[in-house]
Amino acid sequence: MTTTPAPRTRSLAPLWPLAACLVCVAWAFLSILAELWATWGSNPQYSHGYLVPLFAAYLLYARRDLLDLDRVGPSVFGGVLLVLGIALRLYATHYHLTWLDMISIVPILAGAWWLVGGWTVLRWSYPALLFLAFMVPLPYSVANSLSGPLQRLATVSSAFFMQTLGMPALPEGNVILLNDHQIDIIDACNGLRMLVVFFALATALVLVVRRPLLDKVIIVASAVPIALIANIARITLTGFLFEVTTSEAAHAFSHDLAGWFMMPFALALLYVEMCLLGWIFVEDPHAAAAAKAKANAKRAAQTPRPRSQRRPAATPRRKATPEATQPAETEIRPTA
After folding, report:
1. Are 158 and 127 in a shared domain?
2. How far is CA 99 from the centre of its chain?
3. Residues 168 and 272 in one domain
4. pLDDT tens by residue, 210-234
5. Which residues does 203 contact at the CB level (< 8 Å), separation at least 6?
6. Who's near 326: CB < 8 A, 6+ residues apart?
7. Same domain, 270 and 155
């Protein structure tokens, strides 16, 4: 009777050094993490920061098949990256550069994991580690320099679409004059919040979907115009409500319902874009099947077999001697 061997359970012992490095880095950045937590709760523009570590953890789980625990081992190259990350943080602390101090957690954690786990760990974890950068707010100088141009773009574009729809809209500075109404395009309406959130969302999408590299690049690059279009559509719809409803209803939509409207609208545009990319760039099914089979074969070759399923070592064949190769002589006995 043949018995099927039980599948071998993977030992998680090689992951303990990674967990220890994670705890040490979190302790070293405890004050920075507390500051980030306060920023996520006080600034609506970065309220998505709560979800960034959770999605990074999901990426690690989703890519668990790429982690070969038998090949986890130290690497000196990780020490180089770790030293560079520590030097970056020391430089940022000395010159009071808050953004560099916050973002240095990414190279320090990546260097620590690379140091104790080697290239196998880095290849498995680099998308999740890079995605952690989205939990850090933009530098104040960058956000301030983008605010003015985005306000002006939103004002002029929204007024143009209102005029296209037959409404007497006139842009003056960052204000749209619409009959007796005045729509102020303030800093909160410049679209920067939608731009940051949707860029992070598009990046998360390309990390989990199976698409060609060109499609992923186009999807990430299109996050900026899609976010701007969604913000312009919100302002245009607000102006339309000023014309057909009361001012109270238009203000209620602009401040309460607009945020809920922008994200589904942007996601719908992204879905349409992905459908168009699927129609334009047709993937060869034979090439895709061959690439998938090659990847599966490579993954199976890297996965060690259990002892019960390994073939026994072949017994070496003895070399034939001349005496053994000669035919045996038969003894002929005389008959009586």
Report:
1. no
2. 20
3. yes
4. 888 888 899 999 999 999 998 888 8
5. 131, 134, 220, 223
6. none
7. yes
18-74 tens-digit pLDDT: 999 999 999 999 999 999 999 999 887 888 899 999 999 999 999 988 888 888 888
The parent domain of residue 50 ranges over 15-136
Q: What pLDDT, in 10s, does the model give residues 149-159? A: 888 898 899 89
Sign of dihedral through CA atoms 116, 122, 128, 133?
A: positive
Q: Do strands 181-184 and 169-172 pair parallel, antiparallel, or not at all (unpaired)? A: unpaired
Q: Is the pTM of this model over 0.85?
A: no
Q: Name the domain boundary from 267, 282, 297.
A: 282
Report the alpha-carbon distance of residue 185 to residue 150 in Å, rounded: 10
In our burial notation (b when 16+ CB lie closer than 10 A, e otherwise), range 174-211 reads bebebeeeebebeeebbbbbbbbbbbbbbbbbbbeeeb
Rounded CA-CA distance 76/193 in Å is 40
188 & 214 share domain: yes
CA distance 227 to 193: 9
Q: Please choose, from the candidates 267, 271, 284, 270, the residue with its C-alpha nearest in 3D space to the C-alpha of residue 212.
A: 284
